[in-house]
Design a protein that fits this description.
Layout lengths: L1 H20 L40 H5 L1 H5 L8 E6 L17 E5 L6 E4 L11 H10 L16 E7 L8 H13 L4 E4 L8 H12 L3 E5 L18 E7 L17 E4 L3 E4 L6 E4 L6 H14 L5 H10 L20 H6 L30 H32 L27 H5 L24
Parallel strand pairs: 1-4, 1-5, 2-4, 5-6, 6-7, 7-8
Antiparallel strand pairs: 2-3, 9-10
């Protein structure tokens, strides 16, 4: 019994030493250890001020070119969260009011942990303005400037700020940002950057996002390369987005290859600027990608039963081909068409989603009913006969009256003939006016010494 008690005491002592050795809120001396101090991530210099909104030719806004007014009649992205892994998003801008969550930020640190995830002390920070422009294309409000509207104005933006910039951060930090977006419940993930090197941590993070049923959209890049894959766009399960100009022609600087899936507009687009107000003019595949991400949000809002893969397939199957015959290596399946994506009659599991394919569910054909019964035929025959008799009576009444007036003889009625009632048939017409006014000419009898003079019936006037 003593040996058993002593063994238990030694075990408890070892467990206590182990717990004290584990890093946590309590040190070896039992004193509380302060949590790591948040890293200062404020901008070293204020973001570039936005410019006033430039004049936009009528009918050439992004909403006009993409046919968004028709698409919004079907869906606006409400209920869908789109994560933006970028330089941050300034949610103070009037075009983004109420659409941006607090999000998270990841900053590289000089320690064994390599990076640190923290809640932004200033959620609106976007030192470069890149992420704010991307978020504006996705979810800018319809209630703001009418020439600036997001593709999915009802969607919610979850910003993941890469403090050091996506092109300067470590692979593990970038992978942690992608994992953060998935953990936040994003159903669409926008990655407006392109890296020339396949980084294993990033590849694995993308695979986890795809496995979590997230639609991953990435920019193809602006280097003008041919058959040189760019990442994460070239990873399996990612929608790689090229760019076209305002006329719908492929942009020369848009990277090309068989891994490019779809395209969107990427020349001189007007987007919100960081700093709380103003606008900026931008170009490149970075701003074509969020148009596809916004279209994915529309599809996922209208068809919540579709998987990420089915959503991506719907976007590419409904894209408008670019150029003769389509299939340009810079534009993939063609130009994204949000309205067509919402109404495309593709294949899918209609039983899982009643609104699938954008069509009204087809009603079942009525059962084959037997023909008319003998009783119905008899009733129809009697009804037809009675109707014929009524019509015949109505048409024959005038004929009978005229026949009675003729005394039932053939031909027209005779003047003065009496009908069945004893009345004359037709009264002779009264004498003409000439017969009443001009009396008949009397000729005197010839006698002695008289000459017969004939008076003309009509003396000359």
């Amino acid at each position: 019994m003593r040996l058993r008690t002593a063994g238990a005491a030694r075990a408890l002592g070892a467990l206590a030493l182990l717990l004290l050795a584990v890093p946590g809120p309590w040190g070896l001396d039992g004193q509380a250890v302060a949590a790591p101090k948040p890293v200062d991530t404020s901008c070293s210099r204020p973001p570039k001020a936005g410019a006033p909104l430039p004049d936009t030719p009528t009918g050439r806004t992004l909403a006009d070119r993409l046919g968004l007014a028709q698409a919004w009649d079907l869906a606006d992205g409400t209920g869908v969260t789109v994560a933006v892994v970028d330089s941050g998003v300034d949610g103070r801008h009037p075009e983004l009011a109420g659409a941006v969550g607090a999000g998270a930020e990841l900053v590289t640190v000089r320690s064994a942990e390599e990076f640190r995830r923290q809640v932004p002390r200033a959620p609106h920070l976007d030192c470069e303005g890149h992420g704010t422009g991307v978020a504006g294309i996705i979810a800018a409000s319809r209630a703001g400037e009418p020439r600036i509207s997001g593709v999915a104005p009802g969607a919610r933006i979850h910003p993941v700020r890469m403090v050091d910039g996506v092109d300067r951060t470590t692979a593990n930090t970038l992978a942690a940002g992608i994992d953060e977006a998935v953990a936040a419940g994003a159903r669409v993930l926008n990655l407006s950057f392109a890296l020339p090197v396949d980084r294993a941590p990033v590849r694995r993070a993308i695979a986890r996002a795809v496995a979590a049923d997230v639609v991953v959209v990435a920019a193809a890049g602006n280097e003008g390369t041919t058959d040189a894959p760019m990442y994460p766009a070239a990873y399996d399960g990612v929608l790689a987005v090229g760019a076209v100009d305002a006329a719908g022609e492929p942009m020369e600087q848009s990277n090309q290859g068989s891994w490019v899936d779809i395209a969107a507009y990427g020349e001189n687009e007007i987007v919100p600027a960081s700093g709380g107000s103003g606008y900026q003019q931008v170009s490149g595949t970075s701003f074509a990608a969020p148009q596809v991400a916004g279209a994915a949000a529309l599809v996922r809002a209208r068809f919540p039963g579709l998987t990420a893969r089915e959503t991506a397939d719907r976007l590419t199957a409904s894209a408008a081909p670019v150029g003769v015959g389509g299939g340009d290596p810079r534009t993939g399946a063609g130009l994204v068409d949000p309205f067509a994506a919402l109404t495309h009659l593709g294949t899918g599991d209609a039983g899982r989603d009643p609104a699938l394919n954008g069509a009204i569910p087809v009603q079942a054909l009525p059962a084959n009913e037997p023909g008319l019964t003998s009783r119905s035929v008899t009733a129809l025959a009697w009804s037809g006969g009675l109707l014929f008799a009524v019509v015949l009576a109505l048409l024959g009444a005038p004929v009978l009256r005229r026949a009675a007036a003729r005394g039932w003889r053939a031909g027209p009625a005779r003047e003065g003939s009496a009908g069945p009632s004893g009345r004359a048939g037709r009264v002779p017409p009264p004498p003409s006016t000439t017969e009443q006014l001009v009396p008949p000419v009397r000729r005197p009898e010839p006698g002695p010494g008289r000459t017969t003079v004939r008076t003309p019936a009509h003396p000359r006037s």
